[in-house]
Amino acid sequence: MSDKESEIALSDQPSGTGRPSGRPSLEQPASAFGLLVMKVAFLCSPFGTSLRGSEATEAIPNLSRVSKSVISTFILLVLFSIPAFAEKPLLSTSLPIPSEIPHSIKVALMVDVPSVSIYIEGPYMVKISETAASVFESKPLQATVLADEQGIKMNDQLYPTDRMTLTVPSGSIQVGRKRYARQIQIIKKSGNKLLVVNQIDLEEYLKGVLPLEVHPDWSAEFLKAHAVISRTFALFKTLEKKDLDYALVDTAQSQVYGGSLFHKESTDHAVDLTRGEVLTSDGKLFPSYFHAACGGRTAQADQIWPVEPNPVLKGVVCNFCKGTKYWRWSLKMPLQKIEEIMHEKDYPAKNLSNIQFTARDRSGRATRVILKYKLSIVVIRADDFRAWIGYDLFKSLKAGVTVENGLASFVGYGWGHGIGFCQWGAKAQAEAGKNYREILSFYFPGSELKKF
Ligand SMILES: [Zn+2]
């Protein structure tokens, strides 16, 4: 992409962690996006005579009225051609509950690694391929597993297969430094890389999630509410990706999962007390997203991500996280640094002079970022901007920015994508005496708790 005067870029980068990937629907925030079109068009309009006129001259110097007109037309053509991309199907936010509910789930522990070290203390079963019978081994196993052109190599012994399964009747399998119950699948992928997947009982999985997603000392009703949303989310993903090698990863992209070494009594108890309970909406499962703090209002999912609208994910006003640890954040970053980050993402324009957040959703979150350079303007998805700056630094899209002397000062509210369950708000509600059912119905209005 060249740094030319008429450059208007809309990001098509893959999304980062903790959210669905792909291009968001540009039709959902229609009114806000329309405003953006008008703003950019006006900024470059040869007929602009108001206060914006001086900005237009600065942005597009030394151009004739005709050239500017051509550029404006080009920009409008680019912008109005965007809805064509919206034809990409939106990700589902509603799945029917099957008659046979899967009780085990598949979590990727390692993706595209050249090797993995495995240790099993007690007896185990090994299955060399999909069709082979399982072989019982009574001795402990200490192995380095590699992908080879001809198959999978375990401690220099070659197995002509692309899929190996190790199962323990009890105890655990150590993979790297962590331990996992039940079953590990090692799958050979292209380029002699390995995929390592833990297939595990859903309830056991949740006991390895909760201690890493929340503080085990938080109140019991909060922990129960989180157990339900973590279970609902995992089951939704399992149904959504039932034909794939795995449904979840072990990071915040899905839910953080550490295996059996991390279990805690309080979180185990919350999982046991809510065993089999999931949230439904209109009798169907939905992805029960969660985040650290919403900063005053949770977001409507389909205004932030390319997902189907669902009333249960429409967002609510939440003042319960007000004043908590992640209520407000700030960040200062030189424009030069932001320009470098944009270069790394293949936006090579130079002399960044200003940043604007725009096309805000109902919760106040920006959905677009306009970057003004000396000779060009770049428009990207706000969600991508946040990912590129860093989720831990740029904590939320409910943010504003001022630029002075080459320094961008960001101030924002909340931490996370803002969709669904607000952890710090839910914590405050539990401490104020609400039970887990009340907390869940607050963040997911119209939802119903079902036990299977
Ligand atoms: Zn909140």
Description:
26% of the residues lie in helices and 27% in strands. The chain is of the alpha+beta class and 452 residues long. The longest helix is centred in the middle third of the chain and has 21 residues, at 220-240. Strands 5-4-9-12-13-2-14 form a seven-stranded mixed sheet. A six-stranded antiparallel sheet has the order 8-7-6-3-10-11, with no helix packed on it. It has two domains: 1-94 and 286-419, no CATH class; 96-278, no CATH class. The model is unreliable at 1-86 (pLDDT under 50). It is built from twelve helices and 25 strands. Zinc ion (ZN) is lined by residues 293-294, 318, 320-321, 422, 425.
How helical, in percent, are the residues? 25-40%
Task: Report strand order across the widest sheet.
Answer: 5-4-9-12-13-2-14
Q: Count up the domains.
A: 2
Shape: globular
Strand content: 25-35%
Count of helices? 12
Distance, first to last CA? 52 Å
C-alpha-based Rg, rounded? 25 Å
Per DSSP E runs of 2 or more residues, the count of β-strands stands at 25
Bound molecules: zinc ion
Major β-sheet annotation: 7 strands, mixed
- Poorly predicted ranges: 1-86
Structural class: alpha+beta
Give the rounded overall mean pLDDT: 83
Name the features.
452 residues; alpha+beta; 2 domains; 12 helices; binds zinc ion
What is this entry, summarized?
This protein has two domains: 1-94 and 286-419, no CATH class; 96-278, no CATH class. 26% of the residues lie in helices and 27% in strands.
